[in-house]
């Protein structure tokens, strides 16, 4: 019995996240026969947990009176990347972003509205039901209506080329039985989500201390598409960056994604309050949390980092709301009414990331930090709070809150990460390039497999750009792959 229904397709898409599902649907809408492959049992991957996408000049922004200049965004993002981002890719992405918002709506996606994140611009188009609803209630059903064949638990083990080097097929494998079969294809779109969950690739391709890095994702980003493309001569390009998002709690007893909705996690890792390094010293303006990727970078400048909260600020956040949220999982300004109960439960369970004491001296000792230095640091910090002026790093006085009322809580912070971005150099049509800068005919890369959107640090100042690019580049790949295969005779 064969794995797939047919032996030949115009377009085969590898990966069923935002990029892959969009590519499959767009290709089908342009008349292509499409096979969509998913290595796991369930579709969507990490895109299921996304909250919204980036766009400028959308119908939603116009309705809310939000004006963001596309050219200003282009300049800011390219400058932010130290010109490692591709200005041409950004230009096309920006120009099509409002169209992608509308396209998703046309497929049945519903939106809550548009908002900013941290100190960024209001470019984040929040959809109802998160990515799970976008993919499973809208895009995937639409694709299947157009005849897209979807196979789960199916991997790709090799890409095939003709004598001219163009793609003409691939080998797929049924994960349950190990059976393999060869399929002819006019084009292949790689949309496998990067390599965050591949420890060997992370160690080889990035500078991060992976012992402190906590992937918060579906776990499927193991670099499959990149390795397939590199094996046939695609250029290894734009690797090394993970989308860090600041302090995150490491709990060996729970899956990492569980803490995304935790008020304790938000209080411990995302507030602009007080951080100490392994020497009991402050080392940065903690308001860096308003750019969560910068916060991740800052945490990595130290060997260990702890955040400290006193009962006073815990009570304040319960009554008045937090300073900074965590996406739409814990909203900015949300009253932290569950925080105390979560703290009490973590302390009672002896979770390894939390420390509680009635005095600063005792807290420092529990955290394994030099007691005298911690006492000195907090005394100095409290003086800055009284004076409303941070003499060390110039933090906004709004965030200078004294650490004075016991009991006191300390949290060891690791660094959260959502995904990697980059690995394959692509054209503005998302065609994959080889080491000579030439196109590999019929090979496309979308979403986090494609480089060109970022430098060494993700830009949450324009929230939703990663998943927005996934939808856009998926559509872009699918459209051009379908066009490429029209009238193309698949040769051996």
In angstroms, what is the radius of gyration?
24 Å
Mean pLDDT, all residues: 96
If helices are DSSP runs of H or I spanning 4 or more residues, what is the number of helices? 14
- State the helical fraction: 25-40%
The secondary structure category is alpha/beta
Strand content: 15-25%
Number of strands: 19
Spans with pLDDT under 50 lasting ≥5 residues? none
Describe this structure in words.
The structure is a single chain. Helix content is 33%, strand content 21%. Strands 1, 2, 6, 7, 8, 9, 18 and 19 form an eight-stranded mixed sheet that branches. Strands 10, 12, 13, 14, 15 and 16 form a six-stranded mixed sheet that branches. A three-stranded antiparallel sheet has the order 3-5-4. It is built from 14 helices and 19 strands. α1 (18-29) runs parallel beside α5 (130-145), α1 (18-29) runs parallel beside α14 and α3 (70-80) crosses α4 (87-106). β4 and β5 (124-127) form a beta hairpin. The mean pLDDT is 96. With 492 residues, the protein is α/β, with parallel strands linked by helices. It is elongated.
């Amino acid at each position: 019995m064969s794995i797939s229904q047919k032996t030949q397709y115009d377009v085969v898409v590898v990966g069923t996240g935002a990029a892959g599902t969009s590519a499959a649907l767009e290709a089908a809408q342009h008349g292509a026969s499409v096979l969509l492959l998913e290595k796991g049992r369930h579709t969507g991957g990490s895109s299921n947990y996304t909250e919204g996408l980036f766009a400028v000049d959308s119908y939603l922004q116009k309705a809310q009176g939000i004006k963001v200049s596309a050219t200003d965004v282009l300049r800011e993002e390219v400058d932010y990347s130290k010109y490692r981002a591709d200005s041409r890719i950004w230009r096309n992405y920006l120009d099509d972003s409002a169209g992608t918002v509308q396209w998703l709506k046309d497929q049945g996606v519903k939106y809550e509205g548009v908002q900013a994140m941290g100190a960024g611009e209001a470019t984040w188009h929040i959809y109802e039901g998160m990515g799970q609803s976008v993919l499973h209630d809208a895009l995937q059903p639409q694709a299947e209506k157009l005849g897209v064949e979807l196979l789960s638990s199916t991997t790709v083990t090799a890409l095939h080329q003709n004598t001219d080097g163009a793609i003409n097929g691939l080998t797929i494998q049924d994960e349950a039985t190990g059976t393999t079969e060869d399929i002819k294809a006019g084009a292949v779109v790689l949309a496998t989500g990067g390599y965050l969950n591949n420890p060997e690739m992370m160690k080889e391709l990035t500078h991060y201390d992976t012992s402190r890095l906590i992937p918060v994702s579906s776990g499927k980003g193991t670099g499959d598409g990149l390795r397939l493309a590199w094996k046939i001569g695609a250029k290894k390009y734009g690797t090394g960056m993970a989308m860090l998002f600041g302090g995150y709690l490491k709990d060996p007893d729970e899956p990492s994604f569980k803490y995304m909705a935790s008020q304790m996690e938000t209080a411990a890792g995302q507030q602009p309050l007080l951080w100490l390094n392994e020497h009991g010293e402050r080392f940065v303006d903690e308001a860096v949390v308003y750019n969560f990727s910068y916060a991740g970078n800052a945490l990595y400048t130290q060997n260990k980092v702890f955040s400290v909260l006193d009962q006073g600020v815990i009570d304040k956040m319960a009554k008045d709301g937090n300073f900074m949220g965590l996406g739409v999982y814990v909203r900015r300004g949300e009253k932290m009414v569950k925080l105390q109960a979560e703290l009490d439960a973590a302390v009672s369970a002896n979770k390894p990331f939390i420390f509680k004491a009635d005095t600063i001296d005792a807290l420092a000792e529990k955290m394994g930090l030099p007691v005298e230095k911690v006492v000195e640091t907090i005394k100095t910090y409290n003086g800055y709070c009284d004076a409303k002026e941070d003499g060390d790093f110039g933090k906004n006085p709004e965030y200078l809150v004294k650490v004075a009322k016991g009991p006191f809580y300390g949290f060891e912070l690791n660094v959260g990460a959502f995904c990697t971005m980059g690995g394959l150099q692509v054209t503005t049509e998302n065609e994959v390039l080889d080491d000579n800068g030439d196109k590999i005919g019929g090979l496309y890369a979308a979403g986090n497999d494609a480089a060109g959107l970022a430098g060494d640090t993700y830009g949450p100042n324009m929230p939703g750009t990663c998943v927005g690019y996934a939808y856009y580049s998926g559509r872009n790949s699918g459209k051009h792959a379908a066009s490429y295969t029209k009238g193309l005779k698949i040769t051996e």
